[in-house]
Design a protein that fits this description.
With 772 residues, the chain is mainly beta. It is built from 9 helices and 54 strands.
Length: 772
């Protein structure tokens, strides 16, 4: 089997060409599919599993999939592909890579990129401040443009429908290159295609509600300079323009007039040039070596009515001219790009190149977002802060079986990816807090069955085994942080491990969120961990410590409510003045994040400027010390309450109670004092005085009447422990049971060739507390 683009030999099970990255065309029949010239547009084609190489940008999506009152569908009988243009041979394979960029920022939603270009080579998802618009399909027959709102209970709607193009043993997906322009959803649609590679394209538009549609640029306008598909390998969008290019020249299309101009006409740029980016009035390009069929290594830029400038040198990797033409993304003073192993940035002022990170596998290599660079490595999603160059790794969910094929950046620092390039299975990643190490992965499906959108709405969430999903999360959390136990030092008691689990409906939508409290060795103050179920997956919404310090003698973790909705408070450091309370919960768009912020004293006195009234919904005490009146009683009440609650919730979730979760956990401080042992029918007795060194260690003096004594150390774990002695004569085990201390020593020789049992009559002793 050979690649239809570059002719590279391929293994029978290949899905993408290892040289040019093009999807492998799979015949629907046993007979081979005739090879045909192809271009970047074919990149979005998939025979048999029709689908363009996905996404182009990331939305601000947090919705649930489900049936909705869809807007009237504009039915189109037109047929087509997405964009499959051909230059043929190896040199087409080279340029095919230029089309791989991710982040599509609509004109009205460009975060901070100025007027930089974005590639439409794999644009499948775009967004505005209300909806996410994305591509979908139905069983290889229909292609759709769909939308879903940003609220958690939003339902998807079909806005536009087009027949997939089919022939004898082949098919092509007709839609792609989505972008938002002048408040319209614009896209490239193939209106006709043949097995021999003859294709016709137009740029169409639909209104954001799907009720209106039209042609923005006709086939005749796109075909001004000859056969459009055979000349074009890449498409870029910026301001009011599209740039179409290949390895040797490029055109600019004015979206307002439909006029297509050559580079020499609008830029006065003569000779071969390969466009790679536009930023702040400048067109960036390489000048190829036509004689040697190489792209060249010098990067130039030129503005309208200005002279050409040399920017820097971008070396090829291992003399492979193809490798450097992936993903030139402009941002600020840099162009970001990658070879097959590493990601770099080039300073547009001095041409200096800086290596930023290594990555693996993903076809379009990396994504540039407001939060930084996203890329994959070692089954983790990595985020590189572009200011500090600090890398944070997020473990991919277990449902992700390998490094995803495509990665994109989205609104507000989000990241989007698709597991397989020929699927419509989308995933959005959102970091909870800047520079934090926690985030959430939300999956959704763009497939349509029997003309209806697949239902994964909250209304039908009962079909998902929520209990089983939450139980799995709890099992993993307990395995990592330990089950409930109590850490006691002198006159202090603190709950440790996973000490509280509860189910709460934060936004009154009928789906209970899982809330867990746990701490670690670093601090007694617990993390608040909140999960929900979306699209059949358990999704983490929040994970952060509520506070790091407290001056109270008894400390609790609290959740507050207002108008029925629940909020997690996070407190500033006591060093700050004033101290603020940050309240996290679901906002009006169904997103979980910081919703309110108030000065601490005003919050507790409910003297808030917006008239809000927050009342305590749930309080969990996890620490108490001797400064509390009746410390012993409050300590026992705290321990009993947490143990009882833990048992109830674990039974409700059909989970086994961990051994150390419900038993009366032992602390060395519980066994300080004097102990006594007496032998029956004898005046022989032993005495033991114990002092706690820490929560797990006791030290004391053991003596037997009229015989001898020795210094003992007892190290406990749970209700049992090990015993060692100063001179090694008394070594063995300890067990605390029913208020007694059982010591069992190795029967060693201790005096005048006599063993313990010979001297005392036994090597096992039951000591009772002298003053229980």
């Amino acid at each position: 089997m050979f690649c239809s683009k570059c002719g590279n030999p391929l293994p029978e099970d290949a899905r993408f060409c290892s040289v040019c990255g093009a999807p492998v065309k799979i015949s629907q029949e046993a007979s081979p599919v005739p090879q045909q010239p192809a271009g970047i547009l074919d990149e979005m084609v998939n025979i048999q599993t029709p689908k363009p190489e996905p996404l182009m940008q990331e939305p601000n999506f947090n919705g649930q999939m489900g049936y909705g009152a869809a807007a009237p569908v504009q039915k189109k009988s037109k047929k087509g592909l997405i964009i499959g243009l051909s230059l043929g041979g190896v040199l087409l394979a080279v340029i095919l890579t230029v089309a791989l960029i991710f982040v599509f920022h609509p004109k009205d939603n460009v975060p901070e990129y100025g007027q930089g270009s974005v590639s439409l080579g794999a644009s499948e998802v775009i967004y505005d401040d209300e909806y996410i618009y994305y591509l979908g399909e139905q069983a290889g027959d229909q292609a759709y443009i769909m939308r879903i709102g940003d609220q958690s209970n939003s339902k998807p709607e079909i806005l536009y429908e087009s027949d997939q193009i089919k022939g004898d043993g082949w098919s092509k997906y007709p839609l792609g290159a989505l972008f938002l322009w002048n408040d319209k959803i614009c896209f490239l649609e193939c209106t006709n295609a043949t097995e021999q590679g003859d294709e016709k394209y137009e740029i169409h538009w639909i209104s954001k509600d799907g009720k209106e549609d039209g042609t923005l640029v006709s086939y005749e306008q796109l075909n001004t300079y000859g056969e459009f598909p055979s000349q074009i390998n890449s498409i870029y969008f910026f301001e009011d323009y599209l740039v179409f290019g290949n390895r040797y020249f490029f055109y600019r299309l004015d979206l307002n007039t439909g006029e297509l101009c050559k580079q020499e006409d609008f830029l006065d740029l003569e000779g071969p040039a390969c466009f790679v980016a536009y930023n702040d009035g400048y067109y960036y390009y390489f000048v190829p070596d036509v004689v040697n069929n190489l792209m060249g290594e010098t990067l130039y830029r030129k503005a309208v009515d200005s002279e050409e400038e040399e920017i820097g040198r971008v070396p090829s990797q291992d003399d492979d001219d193809v490798e450097k033409y992936f993903s030139f993304i402009p941002k600020g003073d840099y162009l970001y790009y990658a070879d097959s192993d590493n990601i770099y940035r080039l300073n547009i002022h001095d041409g200096e190149i800086e290596k930023l990170a290594s990555y693996e596998r993903t076809y379009n290599r990396f994504a540039l977002s407001d939060a930084g660079l996203y890329y994959f490595r070692d089954m983790s999603l990595c985020l590189l802060d572009l200011e500090t160059l600090k890398e944070t790794a997020f473990d991919l969910p277990e449902s992700v079986s390998g490094i995803p094929d495509l990665i994109y950046a989205g609104w507000n620092g989000e990241c989007w990816f698709i597991q397989w390039a020929d699927s419509f299975d989308y995933c959005r990643f959102r970091q909870f807090h800047p520079n934090g190490s926690n985030g959430s992965f939300v999956f959704w499906d763009g497939s349509v069955q029997d003309g209806s959108v697949q239902d994964a709405s909250i209304d039908n969430q009962e079909t998902v085994n929520t209990t089983e999903l939450y139980a799995d999360v709890i099992d993993r959390t307990i395995a990592e942080h330990g089950a409930l136990w109590f850490d006691e030092v002198e006159y202090e008691c603190c709950a440790r491990g996973v000490f509280k689990i509860d189910l709460m409906d934060f936004n009154q939508d009928g789906t209970e969120e899982l809330v867990m409290l746990y701490n670690n060795e670093e601090s007694i103050f617990p993390f608040v961990d909140v999960w929900t179920v979306k699209n059949g997956e358990a999704v983490q919404l929040f994970c952060e410590r509520q506070q790091e310090e407290n001056q109270e003698a008894a400390i609790s973790s609290r959740i507050y409510q207002n108008a029925g909705n629940l909020y997690v408070p996070v407190y500033d450091s006591l060093d700050q003045n004033p101290v603020y309370v940050h309240l996290y919960g679901f906002d009006e768009n169904g997103e979980f994040g910081e919703v309110y912020q108030y000065e601490n004293n005003a919050f507790y006195m409910n003297q808030l400027p917006d008239g809000m009234e927050f009342t305590e919904y749930n309080s969990v005490q996890f620490y108490v010390c001797d400064r509390v009146t009746d410390y012993g009683a409050q300590k026992n009440l705290m321990k009993e309450s947490l143990q009882t609650d833990m048992e109830d919730i674990l039974k409700r979730l059909e989970l086994a109670v961990p051994e150390n979760s419900l038993e009366d956990t032992v602390s060395a401080y519980d066994y300080e004092g004097d102990w006594v042992w007496k032998r029956e029918n004898s005046d022989m007795e032993g005495s033991l005085h114990l002092d706690a060194v820490d929560a797990s260690t006791l030290s004391g003096n053991l003596s037997f009447y009229r015989l001898f004594g020795e210094q003992l150390t007892i190290t406990i774990s749970g209700h049992t422990g090990t015993v060692t002695s100063e001179f090694g004569n008394f070594e063995g085990t300890a067990r605390f049971e029913a208020g007694n201390l059982y010591l069992s020593f190795e029967d060693k020789v201790i005096y005048s060739s006599k063993t313990i049992s010979e001297m005392i009559g036994t090597s096992e002793f039951c000591f009772a507390a002298l003053n229980p």
